[in-house]
Amino acid sequence: MSTTSRKVIISCAVTGSAHVPSMSDYLPITPEDIRSQAIEAAEAGAAILHLHARDPRDGRPTPSPDVYREFVPAIAQATDAVINITTGGSTRMTLDERLAYARIARPEMCSLNMGSMNFSLHPVAAKIESWRFDWEKDYVEGMEDMIFRNTFRDIRNILAEFQEYGTRFEFECYDVGHLYNLAHFVDQGLIKGPFFIQSVFGILGGLGPDPENVALMRSTADRLFGRENYHFSILGAGRHQMSLVTMGAILGGNVRVGLEDSVYLEKGVKAKTNAEQVRKIRRILEELSFEIATPADARQMLGLKGAGKTAL
Q: What GO MF terms are annotated (predicted)?
């Protein structure tokens, strides 16, 4: 990424699959909630909307294309934000389930985790005194014995298939080794720049939220790829969200917020909407004299195919 560019892409991850409804009354779980919160986040300044689906009956993550169809087309019609569909789904889903809607929609962007890993929030279960739905407690506690699978073959097959659709990726890197996995596929010719690295901090099983790790991921990516060949972005989990993404922007990167990554707006205060987090980071960035990227800017920066070339 050119060091002369000060436009910062704000991504918003609207609901995800890790948090459960008992963690926040404001977590969007119905198609209507996801749709309205995504549109509001785009209006607040999010250029990219990262989307998962949930079963509207009880909020559990679902790969169902029918559920996605209840909110994704409406979001695409109401806003020009880049639609980014997860290929991560949840650790409970098969690879084919995780890819089901993305294969149909052929969006401008998909997320792609760059390796298999332990991924867990299970210590949080001890802090929850009551559960809204029967499935939640076992789901959160069960993360202790789950592995998020993305083998080299899985990644290679996804890259090869989605290359045919013209879909580009948000490459989610939870550790330094994931950057080297990414470099492997660049060397194989399956990934061409400019590519979008989403570096993730604060997930148990991945790299910790130490500020030094942000600089480590940035310098490692520079060494592997050359700064001019990629766009860097920061995801800080939980209470580390705002401080780490602000640091990332200062280091020349982009930012991701949203209720998938943190259910809080500030210490002890739950975010009522995704847009609250978007507005907060936008204010911080603008006070630091950064310009906020529009969806058109994001499409140009990331070499996206355009909303008109999808099947949303």
A: 3-keto-5-aminohexanoate cleavage activity; metal ion binding
pLDDT in tens, 266-297: 999 999 999 999 999 999 999 999 999 999 99
Q: Which residues pair with 201 in a beta bridge?
A: 236
Q: Which residues contact 144 (CB under 8 A, 6 or more apart)?
A: 120, 122
Tokens 């401008």, located at residue: 108
Checking DSSP bridges between strand 230-236 and strand 254-257, what pairing results, if any?
parallel
Class (C level, CATH) for 7-269+295-309 = alpha beta
DSSP assignment of 174-214, as one string?
Answer: -SHHHHHHHHHHHHTTS--SSEEEEEEES-BTB----HHHH
Domain ranges of the chain: 7-269+295-309
φ/ψ (deg, to 5) at 252: 95, 15
Joined together, the tokens standing for residue 171 give 């490459």
Residue 233, φ and ψ in degrees, nearest 5: -140, 155
